[in-house]
Write a structure and sequence with these properties.
By secondary structure, the protein is of the alpha/beta class. The protein is 43% helix and 17% strand. The protein contains 13 helices and 12 strands. The chain binds zinc ion. Zinc ion binds next to loops.
Length: 307
């Protein structure tokens, strides 16, 4: 079962840089997802739309595509009164991505934050490590059942939540785990920190110590900061590193939200991201298959893309 996921790690060890996918939110909204609706429910009600987004990324050059299960923990799904559908929506998500994948494509099971604060920070009772682990274990088991090759624990804000998710994935299966944190750029100090003050080096160390196979950053400000973050992580580890930043900051005009960086502008930053020691590159909010196409071209031009 884990053979395909292991292949990702072997290819990186062999010197390849792999291409991840881009954003989902903007594409789902463009397809009619309403604000406040549950994106994961679309794995059932709008399967064709979700499948076509996956296919769009594979066609654009993504080698690893993630499932539409970012908010798929029971703790998150209960907000939509869909807690009892946790297993079903995650399994469906994995199957949909698999159905869109070419034979050589890899599927990463997306696991995002629960939006519930850890015990030490919450004003209410908060979530204990055990509760985090249980909710992520349920999701990871369902994703594995649906056939993912590896996991993408992503956009994590709290170290407690991130490490609980990693441990849960490892308890569920022996599939590889990629784990990425959300970093804020603190302009005043000219540095990048997680919401709870961890430096990129600290974050990399703690994610690896929890058992992650690939660590890095996603979302956040944009590729310019991704370069700095990956450089700092590379100083403290030889482990595979991944970055999939946002297409710059969101720009709100009336009802519409666009992002600062178009495909060309974004891709221009990627040679430096490769030089920083990044092994898997993609993009997050505000990006679409065109961004991935340009990023894939950069990787090819650097001679880092395998068959
Ligand atoms: Zn994002």
């Amino acid at each position: 079962m884990s053979a395909r996921g292991r292949e990702v790690l072997e290819r990186i060890r062999g010197g390849e840089t792999l291409i991840f996918d881009g954003g989902y939110g903007t594409m789902l909204f463009a397809a009619g997802l309403l604000n406040g609706a549950c994106p994961e429910l679309w794995n059932d009600t709008h399967a064709d739309v979700v499948r076509s987004i996956h296919k769009g990324y594979f066609d654009a050059g993504s080698q690893i595509v993630e499932t539409n299960t970012f908010g798929g923990t029971r703790l998150k799904l209960v907000e939509y009164r869909l807690g009892e559908r946790t297993r079903d929506l995650n399994e469906r998500g994995a199957r949909l991505a698999r159905a869109a994948a070419p034979p050589a494509g890899y599927i990463a099971g997306s696991i995002g934050p629960t939006s519930r604060l850890p015990q030490d920070y919450a004003l209410d009772a908060g979530v204990t490590d055990e509760e985090y682990e249980a909710t992520f274990l349920e999701q990871a088991e369902a994703l594995a059942e649906g056939g993912v090759d590896l996991f993408a624990v992503e956009t994590m804000m709290f170290p407690q939540e991130a490490t609980a998710a990693i441990r849960a994935c490892k308890k569920a299966t022996d599939l590889p785990v990629m784990a990425t944190m959300f970093f804020q750029f603190e302009e005043l100090h000219d540095r990048d920190r997680t919401m709870w003050g961890e430096s990129p080096a600290d974050a990399a160390r703690s994610l690896l110590a929890a058992g992650a196979d690939v660590v890095g950053m996603n979302c956040g400000r944009g590729p310019d900061r991704a370069i700095v973050i990956i450089r700092e992580m590379r100083k403290v580890t030889d482990a595979p590193l991944i970055a999939y930043p946002n297409a710059g900051l969101p720009v709100t005009k009336g009802d519409t939200v666009t992002y600062e960086l178009g495909p060309e502008e974004m891709a221009r930053e990627y040679p430096a991201l490769l030089d920083a020691g990044c092994n898997i590159v993609g993009a997050c909010c505000g990006s679409n298959p065109e961004h991935i196409e340009r990023i894939a071209a950069v990787v090819r031009a650097a001679g880092r893309r395998g068959a």
